[in-house]
Design brief:
alpha/beta; Rossmann fold; 2 domains; five-stranded parallel β-sheet; three-stranded antiparallel β-sheet; about 40% helix; OmpR/PhoB-type_DNA-bd; phosphoprotein; phosphorelay response regulator activity
Length: about 240
């Protein structure tokens, strides 16, 4: 991962907007490149790496939702959905597929730049975590959080997106303590006057679905009206 400035890829089929975004981000010190379709993006990505991808949802051919879903499974990209669709259904679908942020057009370039810097800061903090477990070392109950995965006591590794990693990281550090969704939202996304705590539920739901596919039951419990807790059954 680049130590100084994020490498940005933009998937936007409007050439004028794409060029405006590229020019602005490059003037802000980012290395940025663009593609007019998902297909062009996949071809370019093999030649030009990216850390954060800005994705227009309404793309010709393969749509932005499909790109989001695939990149989130890879687990090492920051993902920002940009769209003219302001419906809650579109927003929750985008967040559920792994978008770190969901921004509406017309995009405020200054706000976008701040969002990218904040997301990049979180990604770098995650990458700087040593590749060693942060959980307890008891062999019978160890859940090991590594750079990009959660390993179960039986040795099964669940690949994590940046959002999923951040959520598990907080819950493990506060094991057996109930963390409110407001607190989790602040730690994952930054303080907001009116936080959308449903985002935490979406991340957890996606993580549980991923775990079930590998026959893993996560020791995370939702306490109605209070928040989430990672239960260490040996304590």
């Amino acid at each position: 991962m680049n130590d100084t400035c994020a490498r940005i890829a933009i998937i936007e089929d409007n050439p004028d907007l794409r060029e405006e975004l590229l020019f602005f981000l490059q003037t802000q010190g980012f290395s940025a490149w663009g593609a007019g379709s998902a297909e062009a993006f996949w071809k370019q990505l093999h030649r030009t790496p990216a850390d954060i991808v800005l994705i227009d949802i309404s793309l010709p051919g393969e749509d932005g939702f499909s790109v989001l879903e695939y990149l989130s499974h890879l687990g090492n990209y920051g993902l920002i959905a940009i769209t003219a669709h302001d419906s809650e259904q579109f927003k929750q679908r985008g967040l559920g597929l792994g978008a770190d942020l969901y921004m509406l057009k017309p995009v405020n370039f200054s706000s976008l730049c701040n969002a990218i810097r904040s997301l990049w800061h979180r990604m770098r903090e995650q990458a700087s975590v040593p590749d060693t477990p942060v959980s307890a070392t008891r062999d019978s109950s160890t859940w090991a959080l590594n750079n990009d995965s959660l390993t179960t006591p039986s040795g099964i590794a669940l690949a994590l997106t940046p959002q999923e990693y951040s959520l598990i990281d907080v819950l493990l550090r506060h094991r057996n303590e109930v963390c409110s969704k407001e607190l989790l939202h602040d730690l994952l996304f930054g303080y907001e006057n009116d936080p959308n705590t449903h985002r935490i539920s979406v991340i957890l739901s996606r993580l549980r679905t991923k775990a079930r596919k590998q026959a893993v039951t996560l020791p995370i419990r939702a306490i109605f009206g209070k928040g989430l807790v990672f239960r260490d059954l040996n304590q």
